[in-house]
Write a structure and sequence with these properties.
Elements lengths: L15 E7 L4 E11 L5 E11 L3 H5 L14 E8 L9 H11 L1 H10 L4 E10 L10 H9 L10 H21 L4 H5 L3 E10 L19 E8 L2
Parallel strand pairs: 5-6
Antiparallel strand pairs: 1-2, 2-3, 3-6, 4-7, 5-7
Helix pairs in contact: 2-5
Length: 229
């Protein structure tokens, strides 16, 4: 999936806690969102989805795993990735339906592996990258990164970190919204927690392949997942 638009403004809803639905049996669908940084300094957007009983919610959602560094070699790499043009970090509206169709399958993979477990805890990590084409920084993006991160200017390398992080966040939002398509299947479990971590790694190379300094294969977001228990 390849986008061809100029810089778009991606609206990120501020840190919030949302109870989406509660039924008579005290089963809830819950979403908690916040921003943080990894121990390596990578910017992260974290969304935690929970399906289960109210009394188990607080003990499960407060875990610190989402703040730890992640060894991607221990995760399953999803078969699809999202690619972006220079200075673009959002998925345009006319491509979101296609993106949902492509990336909703991650839940099918998770359900297939977790079908015999009563309690399921999943981590989905979306890692964003960029190349060196952003050396000539887009001023609209630059100003927006500053405004939404309470900065007057960005330190060297921060522009690229934000660009890659918001690419990851744009894809994580697609994956979060696609959860509604599988809510009924996940409700069959006694308890489900899905931690969705969007992380930007700036100009770090996505893998050990050879790349050019300006390379459209580096401007992307890649998805990994793992069942914790």
């Amino acid at each position: 999936m390849r986008f061809t638009l100029t810089c778009l403004l991606f609206v990120f809803f501020a840190t919030h806690t949302l109870v989406a639905q509660t039924n008579a049996n005290s089963e809830i669908f819950y979403l908690k969102s916040f921003k943080t940084r990894s121990p390596n300094g990578y910017k992260r957007f974290i969304d935690q989805l929970f399906v289960g009983k109210k009394q188990t919610l607080s003990s499960q959602m407060n875990q610190l795993r989402v703040r730890q560094d992640k060894d991607l070699n221990t995760f399953t790499k999803f078969s699809k990735a999202s690619f972006y043009p220079i200075s673009v970090y959002d998925i345009p509206n006319d491509k979101k339906e296609l993106a949902t169709e492509l990336f909703k399958a991650i839940y099918e993979d998770i359900l297939a592996e977790a079908n015999s477990k009563p309690i399921v805890h999943v981590e989905i990590i979306i890692v964003g990258y960029t190349d060196l084409s952003d050396d000539k920084k887009d001023l609209i993006c630059y100003d927006w990164f500053c405004k939404n991160n309470n900065k007057t200017k960005l330190a060297p390398g921060e522009y690229e970190l934000y660009m890659s992080a918001y690419r990851a966040k744009s894809l994580s939002q697609i994956i979060i919204e696609a959860f509604d398509l599988y809510k009924e299947q996940f409700s069959a479990f006694e308890q489900v927690q899905i931690d969705i971590i969007a992380e930007g790694r700036g100009t770090q190379l996505p893998d050990e392949k050879e790349y050019e300094s300006i390379d459209d294969k580096r401007r992307k977001a890649v998805v990994y997942w793992k069942i914790i228990n």
